[in-house]
């Protein structure tokens, strides 16, 4: 009996030990992150001179609700709490739970920020995108305290520029450590945008290893779940920064030898460069921006950034983020065909680039992501997406714009949330995944629309585009007028003006998402 008890205790302790040393991977697929895509653009590469970062929160678990956290003054002795994220399956839908693991000293004053699942902009036009790339498993350390979401919040609460945010990260991570897998944060301000890639220090250690590379002002860049920073030149701090231990840790672990060319991505995340799910997206983004380069979709490495053939517009970025390789050999549903009314072979209207993985088996789909098909840029499991403009010729309140979409961007629309907006439409703040399906939620309006339209995508997408494409164009074109109106107002009225527009457009697109969904359900009855 005692022996049986000791064995049960051993198994229990072993399971506890394992769960303690392994960061949650419940949002990964086939052992690799299938998460987010982030695109960055320098100010000389954009049509209007804005600096751009972005993010698709591609996840099966992260929260869909969001809110604006106001600027605050804190009393001496106040603390910033730190949490560990883990899977939670006891609510209406899969989500995360956050267990407190520590705290650090709070600063006297913190900035206002937009509190998306990965906090994304503050009142000073500091903006952040994100993409997980993994890296060496043995670098993860439970001795560390700061994860990706908390680091982004700390940057936004305390910093006003990208370089200041990177410096803060270095200071905090030296002291408290990086408790996460390899992440790329794309950090933009009114002047420039950087890619900050960071991994843990190794089991039992406190700290982090990181590198940062600036996107040239006339270039566009991308991170799609793979490390992209290669050779670095720390003698050129205008383009490169790194932690002091970057070479030592690589050497200690046998990932790099003195005298060899040091390539960050092959030292710290070589497996990420094997992923076609990542490389295909890199190819597609860079090729859509600069088709003249004739990049090979099957290459192992692409340039960190490229000069676009034409200045990048907001409409072009929306086009890229909505992409699923249609018109290329990598449209993985291109062989789902039928005869049209004239007897010609065409892609079936039921061919759906947003099929749940189980449907791939039904249609014998295979591709660069094996049985998962192809990892396209637009995804059916996107929670929300951002394209963020930082504009230095305008006051911060209106200069920073988060163009915010809900759910799959291929069937969604972006609305503006300004650095100065102090609130969102109520439906954006509903904790939808906790509650389950509800007509009170913005996320559910777009999730239902995306799910419905995917059932007969070849036809239904046109019903969505008929409404959203011209509306999206109007929102972008109206922004110049909004800027002018803002500048004509007294300072007391400016923030209210921006907040009202954010709420108004939020309510408008949510109402239209419900209307389009209801129309599809009626129009295609018995056809899907």
Characterise the protein shown here.
- This protein is an alpha+beta fold and 528 residues long.
- It has a domain at 331-366.
- It is 33% helix and 21% strand.
- It is built from 13 helices and 23 strands.
- Strands 12-13-14-15-17 form a five-stranded antiparallel β-sheet, with helices on one face. Strands 4-21-22-23 form a four-stranded antiparallel β-sheet. The chain has a three-stranded antiparallel β-sheet with strand order 3-16-18, covered by helices on one side.
- A hairpin with an 8-residue loop joins β22 and β23.
- α11 packs parallel to α13.
Keywords:
single chain, 528 residues, alpha+beta, five-stranded antiparallel sheet, four-stranded antiparallel sheet, 33% helix, disordered N terminus, signal, dipeptidase activity
Layout of secondary structure:
Elements: H1 2-21, E1 28-29, E2 32-33, E3 38-41, E4 51-58, E5 67-69, E6 72-73, E7 79-88, E8 95-105, E9 109-110, E10 113-115, E11 121-122, E12 127-134, H2 148-158, H3 162-176, E13 182-188, E14 193-199, E15 209-214, E16 220-223, E17 240-242, H4 246-252, H5 264-268, H6 276-289, E18 305-306, H7 314-321, E19 337-339, E20 345-347, H8 357-362, E21 382-390, H9 396-399, E22 401-406, E23 415-418, H10 432-435, H11 442-454, H12 457-488, H13 491-523
Antiparallel strand pairs: 1-2, 3-16, 4-21, 5-10, 6-9, 7-8, 10-11, 12-13, 13-14, 14-15, 15-17, 16-18, 19-20, 21-22, 22-23
Helix pairs in contact: 2-3, 11-13, 12-13
């Amino acid at each position: 009996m005692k022996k049986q008890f000791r064995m049960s205790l051993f198994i229990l302790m072993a399971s506890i030990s394992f769960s303690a040393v392994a960061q949650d991977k419940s949002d990964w697929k086939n052992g690799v992150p299938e998460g987010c895509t982030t695109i960055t653009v320098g100010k000389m590469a954009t049509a209007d001179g804005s600096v751009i970062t972005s993010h698709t929160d591609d996840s099966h678990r992260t929260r869909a609700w969001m809110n604006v956290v106001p600027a605050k003054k804190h009393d001496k002795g106040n603390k910033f709490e730190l949490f560990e994220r883990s899977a939670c399956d006891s609510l209406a839908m899969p989500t995360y739970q956050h267990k407190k693991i520590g705290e650090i000293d709070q600063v006297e004053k913190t900035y206002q920020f937009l509190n998306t699942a990965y906090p994304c902009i503050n009142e000073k036009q500091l903006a952040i995108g994100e993409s997980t790339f993994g890296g060496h498993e043995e670098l993860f350390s439970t001795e560390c305290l700061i994860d990706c979401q908390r680091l982004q919040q700390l940057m936004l609460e305390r910093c006003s520029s990208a370089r200041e945010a990177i410096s803060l990260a270095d200071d905090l991570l030296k002291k408290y450590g990086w408790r996460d897998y390899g992440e790329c944060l794309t950090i933009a301000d009114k002047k420039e945008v950087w890619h900050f890639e960071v991994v843990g220090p190794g089991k039992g250690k406190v700290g982090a290893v990181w590198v940062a590379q600036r996107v040239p002002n006339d270039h566009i860049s991308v991170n799609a779940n793979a490390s992209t920073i290669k050779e670095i030149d720390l003698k050129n701090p205008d383009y490169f920064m790194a932690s002091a231990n970057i070479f030592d840790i690589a050497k200690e672990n046998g990932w790099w030898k003195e005298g060899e060319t040091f390539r960050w991505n092959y030292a710290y995340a070589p497996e990420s460069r094997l992923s076609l799910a990542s490389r295909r997206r890199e190819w597609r983004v860079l090729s859509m921006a600069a088709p003249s380069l004739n990049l090979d979709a099957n290459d192992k490495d692409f340039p960190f950034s490229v000069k676009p053939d034409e200045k990048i517009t907001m409409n072009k970025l929306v086009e890229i983020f909505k992409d699923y390789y249609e018109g290329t050999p990598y449209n993985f549903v291109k062989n789902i065909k039928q005869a049209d009314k004239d007897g010609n072979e065409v892609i079936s209207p039921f061919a759906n680039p947003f099929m749940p993985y189980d449907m791939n088996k039904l249609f014998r789909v295979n591709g660069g992501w094996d049985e998962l098909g192809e990892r396209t840029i637009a995804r059916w499991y996107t929670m929300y997406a951002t394209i963020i403009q930082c504009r230095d010729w305008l006051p911060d309140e209106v200069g920073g714009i988060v163009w915010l979409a809900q759910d799959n961007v291929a069937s969604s629309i972006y609305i503006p949330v300004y650095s100065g907006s102090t609130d969102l439409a109520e439906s954006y703040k509903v904790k939808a995944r906790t509650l389950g399906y509800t007509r009170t939620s913005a996320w559910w309006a777009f999730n239902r629309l995306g799910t419905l339209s995917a059932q007969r995508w070849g036809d239904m997408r046109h019903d969505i585009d008929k409404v959203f494409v011209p509306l999206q164009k109007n929102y972008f074109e109206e922004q110049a007028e909004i800027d002018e109106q803002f500048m004509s107002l007294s300072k007391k009225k400016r923030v209210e003006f921006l907040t009202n527009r954010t709420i108004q457009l939020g309510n408008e697109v949510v109402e239209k998402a419900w209307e389009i969904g209801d129309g599809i359900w009626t129009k295609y009855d018995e056809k899907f």
